[in-house]
Amino acid sequence: MERLHSSLLRLGFSQKESAMYLAALELGSAPVQTLAKRAGVNRATAYGLIDSLIERGLVSKVAKGRKGEFAAEHPERLCALLRLQQQTLNEQEHMMRELLPIFSALHNQSGQKPKIRFLEGEEGMLTTREIFLRLTGPFVQIVPLHETETHPILSKARTEHLCALHALHIPHRAILLMDKPDLSKIPTVSHGEVRVLPKEALPIKAEITVRANHVFLYTFSFHPISVVIENNEIADAIHSLFDLAWRGTEGAMGRTMGKDDALVM
User: Fold this and answer.
1) pLDDT tens, residue by residue, 84-95
2) 202 CB contacts (<8 Å, ≥6 apart)?
3) In whole numbers, what is the pLDDT of the chain averaged over residues?
4) What fold characterizes domain 113-256?
5) 69 to each of 55, 61, 82, 106, 151, how far by Cα in Å?
6) What are the two backbone dihedrals, phi and then psi, of residue 188, each rounded to the nearest 5 degrees?
7) Tens of pLDDT, residues 36-58
8) What own/partner pairs with CB < 8 Å and gap ≥ 24 does 157-166 have?
9) Intervals of CATH 1.10.10.10 along the chain
């Protein structure tokens, strides 16, 4: 009986609805007070429970003498009820998908209010990368390569992240900072153009990435922190600063990768 009760709860029944329905199944046809006693609920509550079960088509009223009795419908009715609930869920999901663009627009209207998120540690880094991969369009970034390759947390998911970038063929430009610039030691990711500088030329300790209207900042302390800024104006400003740095690196050691280049890490 406990298993049946648990199953009904998972189907959306309340504790008392489940008890009343099982009592009706067991007793066949019975008056409210008998069902209430069997279910362990008071008589006043039982009438409301019976009405709820009748509304679902699970219990019906049976005329017997001056006082009506109530009987459970065949349990197959539960399957019909589930089908109806599934149909309702499908209709609600369809409606929500149609309204989702409107809700998304309200979420951050016109990009006017910067949305800033701080994420810490390994889970924060993984969440940040998931946000990045959900976006569309090219990206630009400045990466202190040695820090990303040797950091105990960042290096763990680095291979998986580079594989995802390579498979998606995302156009990108990157300025990589190295102790000693060496093209043979940089990742080869499709659709990318990279330039390599000695770290003294741009002495920063954080990674900066811009994609769509998002700016991603990563610090490389032992406990890394990711900052995600969602704002059109800020993203455009950081992108412009990158373009300025990119123009200043013309003639630097670099490489351009096409869609057919193999991934090298």
Assistant:
1) 888 888 888 888
2) 142, 175, 177, 245
3) 82
4) Endonuclease; Chain A (3.30.870)
5) 16, 6, 26, 53, 73
6) -110, 105
7) 898 898 888 888 998 888 888 88
8) 157/122, 157/125, 157/126, 157/129, 158/265, 159/265, 161/129, 162/187, 162/189, 162/263, 162/265, 163/263, 164/133, 165/189, 165/190, 166/190, 166/263
9) 2-73
- What is the per-residue pLDDT across 237-248, written as a single tens digit (0 to 9) for each? 999 999 999 998
Burial of 103 (0-12, 13-18, 19+ CB in 10 A): exposed
Q: Which fold has domain 2-73?
A: Arc Repressor Mutant, subunit A (1.10.10)
pLDDT digits (tens, 9 = 90+) for 209-249: 999 999 999 887 667 788 999 998 899 999 999 999 999 88
Tokens 């009343």 sit on residue: 20
Which ranges in the chain are annotated with CATH 3.30.870.10? Answer: 113-256
pLDDT above 90 for 160: no
Among 194, 198, 203, 208, which residue's Cα sits nearest to residue 142? 208
The pLDDT assigned to 264 comes to 45
